[in-house]
Amino acid sequence: MSGDHGGLDWPGLLRAGLHGLGLRPAEFWALTPLELMLMLGREARADALFTRDRLENLLRRYPDVAPEERAEHDGNG
After folding, report:
1. Ordered DSSP codes for the chain
2. Which InterPro entries does UniProt cross-reference here (predicted)?
């Protein structure tokens, strides 16, 4: 399988979770990438951690705005 998977090897992680750890699909998808890495005995990369700064950056880039407010901001309302 090729293509960009958001920086994660999803096919490899699925194999490791379902076959290696014996997780059911629902259990696998309920985990965060950090939880899965810990279960696999791997250290999480520092740049992969979701920090307060990363949250603030996302909030600035994608503010929570109701659809009707978004239309007003876009000049479509």
Report:
1. --S--TTS-HHHHHIIIIIIS---HHHHHHS-HHHHHHHTT-PPPGGGS--HHHHHHHHHHS----HHHHHHHHT--
2. GTA_rcc01693, Phage_TAC_6
